[in-house]
Amino acid sequence: MKILLLNPNTTKAVTDLLLAAGRDAASPGIELIPQTAPRGVPYIATRAEAQIGGAIALEILAERHREVDAAIIAAFGDPGLFGARELFDIPVVGLAEAAMLTACMLGRRFAIVTFARALGPWYRECIEMHGLEQRCAGVRMLDGAFSEIAEVQEEKEALLVELANRAVREDEADVVILAGAPLSGLAAKVRDRIPVPVVDQVAAAVRQAETLVALKPRKATAGTFRRPDPKPTTGLAESLASRIEHRAKDNGSGREDSHR
């Protein structure tokens, strides 16, 4: 089984963190294929940046979806997730949705703990997008700057643990999610210092992707996530334009190869 681990920002060191955490969680025989966005921002922290990252994620998926069995959009906030589910036949998993749904299986309410205050509005809207407001105890964010995005978990580890424990005490969180791609892998390091389950976002996403592939769901041909009807495009990346326009790719049978 091949799973595309798609980092929609431009920092390869963050992709390396995602890949290491994902490999620790993956079942034997699972191949994680890392992909860093070729353009965009070093890390996504705002609504505008999420829109940019989501568009780039759709382009990458259009280029690579036939190579893999599933894909993970590896930014907490899930930029481009719903659009990807419309356009592509493979299961596409979002980091935030996978972490939150996993947390819902471990407790009544979860808290999201992250490393920058700028992320708060976007994360709150992501919670609403997934219909999980009633299950969220709150979003806790650190104040202050950090040195390097790929080193933020090491630099801020003690403060993040303190913030997580405050979420348990003050917000009555049953589960904590350490959120944001640069915090990938941190849950395993600090789990014994937080008195409730701590969800690693990448581990949750990898396992959810594995499960969806194993379940072999059909692509919807009705409902809100059916593939949109074809329409002409102007100026889009060729692979994405081809997908939107329903240009057939011959798989030897004269039919469009919608997956591999």
Describe the structure.
- The protein has helices at residues 12-25, 47-64, 81-87, 95-104, 120-129, 152-155, 157-171, 186-190, 201-215, 238-245, and strands spanning 2-7, 31-36, 70-73, 92-94, 110-114, 136-141, 175-178, 198-200.
- The chain has 260 residues and is α/β, with parallel strands linked by helices.
- The chain has two domains: 2-94 and 207-245, 3-Layer(aba) Sandwich (Rossmann fold); 97-200, Rossmann fold.
- Helix 2 crosses helix 10 (238-245).
- It is globular and about 55 Å long.
Summarize the structure.
With 260 residues, this protein is an alpha/beta fold.
Number of distinct helices: 10
Remind me, CATH topology of the largest domain? Rossmann fold
Tally of discrete structural domains: 2
What characterizes the major β-sheet?
4 strands, parallel
Strand content: 5-15%
Radius of gyration: 18 Å
Query: Which sequence of SSEs, written as H and E, runs from N to C?
Result: EHEHEHEHEHEHHEHEHH
Low-confidence stretches: 250-260
Output mean pLDDT.
Answer: 93
Number of extended strands: 8
Structural class category: alpha/beta
Q: In CATH, what is the class of the largest domain?
A: Alpha Beta
Q: What's the CATH architecture of the largest domain? A: 3-Layer(aba) Sandwich
